[in-house]
Design brief:
The complex is a heterodimer of chains A (291) and B (319).
Chain A (H helix, E strand, L loop, with lengths): L2 H10 L3 H36 L4 H4 L13 H8 L2 H32 L4 H13 L7 H10 L6 H24 L4 H9 L4 H12 L1 H17 L2 H6 L7 H6 L9 H21 L1 H8 L6
Chain B lengths: L1 H16 L2 H45 L1 E2 L9 E2 L3 H8 L3 H30 L6 H13 L2 H12 L6 H7 L8 H4 L1 H26 L3 H9 L4 H28 L4 H7 L8 H11 L3 H34 L1
Antiparallel strand pairs in B: 1-2
Helix pairs in contact in B: 2-14, 3-14, 4-9, 4-11, 5-9, 6-9, 6-12, 9-11, 9-12, 11-14, 13-14
Classes of the chains: A mainly alpha (291), B mainly alpha (319).
Chain lengths: 291, 319
Amino acid sequence: MSAATVSAPSRSTRTKGSTLTRRKVSGYLVTALTWILVLLFFFPVLWMVITSFKTEGEAASYPPMFIFDPTWDRYIEVFRRGMGLYLGNSAAVSVLSTIVVMALAIPAAYALSVRPIGKWQDALFFFISTKFMPVAASIIPVFLLLRSLNLLDNLWSLGVLYIGINLPLAVWMMRSFFAEVPRAVVEAAQIDGASFNRELWRVALPIVAPGAAAAALICFIFAWNEYFLANLLTAVVARTTPPFLGSFVDGRGQFIAVLSAASTVAVLPVIAAGWLAQKRLVRGLAMGAVK
Amino acid sequence: MTATTQPRTAELAPGQAKPKKPLKVQLKGQELAERKFARKLITPALVVAILITQVPFVVTIYYSFQNWNLARPQDRSFAGFDNYVAVITNGAFLPSLWATIRIVGGSVILSLVLGLILAVLLDRKFRGQALARTLLITPFLVMPAAAALIWKFSLLDFNTGMVNYGLSFFGIPPVAWNTDHPGLTIVFTLTWQYTPFMMLILLAGLQSQAGEVLEAADVDGASALQTFRYMTLPHLRTYAELATLLGTVMMIQVFDPVNIMTKGAGDTKTLPYLLYERAFIGQQIGEAAAYGVVTVIITIVIATAALRTLFKVFTEEAR
């Protein structure tokens, strides 16, 4: 495949009509290929949802059953196993930690975007570097401390750790959103005599509100999906959804259908939220480097 | 050049020239107050970040120089570099590092390649483009614990898994993924989850490409492949680097699929899992802390590169 073989056909088919039809046909082919790949990637999620409506026997049958009599029984079973409590724990710890993270991150990010000089740059660097710090770096002392304070299996201690995990990302994201607020708007507010405080909450924040919502959503998703700390630090009372799902590994007998139902319930809120906010999600995940 | 600067200065003049003098005096005091206030704004976040992430790390370093087994807490003593020597000599570290490199490296490369293909495919107008993109980001949103379970039990199962079912149409006999290829099962799961992430960053890179330049190339008679090879790929390079580094930093912490799918069996004992096993199952606090410190050092090397790329992207955009 040299450059010559590639460029040759495009030169010879420069006659208008045939180029158009060729382009159209190859366009359809590429679109079809795209859809095949997309559906392949989406299939595991789709299959999980389908399986959750089967009986265990149907779920374990081979070849797989595509037509069956759907039932909600697996969902009832999942909540009978106490998933309600775990979902509630997950929601509480994710929402609360996200609120605190945003309350800390918004002022910090604003200060960093208004005065990005000297020491501030270092502070910014510091925040982003903590994002790259593996949990392995801190988990041993944290675990021993919580154990000695009798704070294991406690939602509050889990929440505090989630604040630490999500704060750098939130600061970084919010800074990139604040940086886009036109200087003129802020200066106009200053001339009008607005205090710095007012300038932040009343002038700048409303402009970046969609960005703030996306940052909060990403923090929520990470907290909701977090498994390592939740698995290690919670047991019964403060158990969250991911370690509950993880406990299916030790399942005896057939459990694929009920596992699929539990997984569907667990991933549904995040998928729904992610779909709604997908455009801004990209930017947050790339740490604001991508518009 | 002059034509474009002319109206700009003209525009600025009336607004800026007049209030400049009185404002400057006012700004001095205001700037000081502002600075003070800014410090007040940033301090809480800084303190929290330091307390939760930095202090424990310092303690981890301290632990790594201690002889300390939780089963015999009274025998605690200073160990010097014994734990680090143990890390290197006891035969667990190097295989674990190798497992981490293979699993993370394999997943990063696979998801980057698939992400690039999908980004290129999604970067054109077609029916249902928005829906395709929405469906495609879904794997990244799925809870990793759920993804690991679904892949292990529903997709990769030897007897009833959908992957073997799919392969049967191509005449490929069933493969015992979970028992014969545990490393691959983790790579599959990670690749599935991170391909959307790679795709999103690369797609953003593709869309930031100036349309006029591509049109010019088209007019000049460049084929689509030539344009892609000589214009799009170089442009994408920074974005690909960023995606690779961020993906690596995220995946190097891989624990969920290992704990759920393999428990470290069959060359899948990654560094985070090894640390978990030593500290919380083996109760070797000192040695586990040393693994932690070594993991951090490795991560810092990668993260430094990631940060450099991140800033390169920023400066390029600012230009």
